[in-house]
Amino acid sequence: GVYCQAAVDTSGEAECALYFGTAGTKAISADYDGDDFYNPTTVSATTSTTINPIVIDPMVTAGDQFTCSIDGSGHPYCWGKDDSGQTDTDSIPTYLVFKLISAGTSHVCGLTTMSKPYCWGWNGYGVINPPDEFGFMQVTSGETHSCGLKFDGTVKCWGNSAGNRTNPPQTLFKMIEAGANHTCGIRNDNNQVECWGDNSYGQSSPGAYSTSQFTSFNAGEKATCGILSSGELACWGAISSPPAGVYQNLSLGNEHACAINSMNQMACWGNNTDGQAISLIGPFGQVASGTDHNCA
Questions:
Q1: CA-only gyration radius of the chain, Å
Q2: N or C: which end of the chain has fewer CB within 10 A?
Q3: Which whole-number Å values give the CA distances from 293 to 140, 179, 186, 252, in the listed order?
C-alpha cells in the first residue's frame, strides 16, 4: 500500500497527504486520539507514526426527495427537498473534510477524515447528535436513527430506539447499512448478514440466506438485498425476485431496488409507481436509491 510519515507534535496534530481518488492530493491536519489516526492499534505514537492515506471515492446517496454527493475537496453538496435542513450544507464547518456520507429520510450523517461522525438535518430523537468519539470507519442513516461502525468491529447507534433499532448485537462487523427502521451488518467471522430492529416485512430475517456469505448489501424501508459471494443477488422482506446476473453494487428505496451489474449496466425492480424501477442504460459506476427516486 501507499504510506506517508506524519510527525506528531505536542498538540496531537500531524500532516499527511489526502488522496481524492485519482483527482489529486491535498495536505490536511489529522487529529490523534491517543491510539492511532484511522486504524487504531496497540502501538502508541510519541514522535511519529505511519498512517494510510485516505482515499475519497466519488459517491452519491439519496434520502426522501433529496440527494447528496461529495465533491473533489471532500465537501458534501445536497439538493432537493429541504424542509428540515437536510440539504443545507452551507452550515457545515468548512474545515471538515468527509470520507463518506449517508442520507436518511430527512437527515444526513457523514464520516470526517478524523474518523468522527457529523450529522445535519432533521433532529427528532437526537438523530443528528452522534457519539462525540473518534475511531469510526463507517456511518449509515435510516429514517429516525443512524449507526456507526468502529475500527474494532463494534457498532454504535443513536436516535429513535423503538423496535430495538439502536441496540445492535455484540457481534463484530465489517460493514453495516441502515434501512428505514432496521439495520444489518456483514459479520467479521463468517461474512453472513445479521440484522436488528423492525421486522414487520421480514426485512431483518435473511431466512433462506441466513448462512449465505455476502460481499456487500443494502437495506431499504421494507426489505434488504445483498450480493452473494457468487455475485448474484439475494433479497428478503417486501422486495423479492431480483434479476439474474453478477452485480457489483446495489441500493434500496422504499419498495424498489436498483443494482449495477458486472457490465456497468443498471437493473431495477419492485414498485414502479413513480418510474423508480425503470432501468436506465449505462454505463454506471454506482446507483443510490431514495424513497421513490434514484441517482447514478
A1: 19
A2: N
A3: 19, 15, 26, 10
